[in-house]
Amino acid sequence: MDFSEQLRLFRERVGDRRATALILTGTGQTDTAALLLAALQPQRVAFLLTPETSTFPERVAQQIGQSPDLNWLRKTVSYTDINQVYRELRAIIEEWSAVPRADILVDLTGGTKMMSVGLAKAAYVLGLGTIYIESDYQQNRPVPGTQRLLDPPDPYEVFGDLEANEAARAFNAHDYPSAARIYADLARRVPEPDRATYAALA
């Protein structure tokens, strides 16, 4: 299946969704990044690259039939140095300081396992959005045209009650600022009907 057909199917699944800002990691294949850029049409784009993937933005741009955007940010990191990944991610966020953090999406599909784990942890701490492209597989290879965009759920959807217990302990110990902070964080991150409850407690 050629890429144009993959993109058509992916756009049907994505619908009208768009992205304000998107952070991608360089990989050996360009399909995922090309699908995200063409379908989500982000206003701002940044790449976390390694020396081995330095030409990744050019290859992605070629796949979607455009020239590399001069405004695309490029940060080169060592995939074995997670602190360097964090530093470059910080530099991107500082450069995009006018963009609300929740509007910055980090693609966790590509990159090395170490980079993906580091980015997922950083996104959770910083309140960035995360996305992932899931595909069907045959013989350990993704089946073209089956790509689907997923938003990994916030862990608080499962662990929220554990954090609420921590808030209650803080409240009972008269540590009201800590209790309020935890409840407010829960209210921001869990779905209804618990959201309203935690907002009231905060």
Describe the protein.
With 202 residues, the protein is α/β, with parallel strands linked by helices. The protein has 2 domains: 3-150, Rossmann fold (3-Layer(aba) Sandwich), CATH 3.40.50.10770; 156-201, no CATH class. It is built from 8 helices and 8 strands. The strands form 2 sheets. A 6-stranded mixed beta sheet has the order 3-2-1-4-5-8, sandwiched between helices.
Q: Mind telling me the CATH superfamily name of the largest domain?
A: Hypothetical protein VC1899 like domain (Restriction endonuclease-like)
Uncertain segments:
none
CATH C-level class of the largest domain is: Alpha Beta
Domain count: 2
- Helix percentage: 40-55%
Biggest sheet strand line-up: 3-2-1-4-5-8
Fill in the CATH topology of the largest domain: Rossmann fold
Main pleated-sheet profile: 6 strands, mixed
CATH architecture annotation name of the largest domain: 3-Layer(aba) Sandwich
Using the alpha-carbon principal axes, give the shape: globular
Tally of separate helices: 8
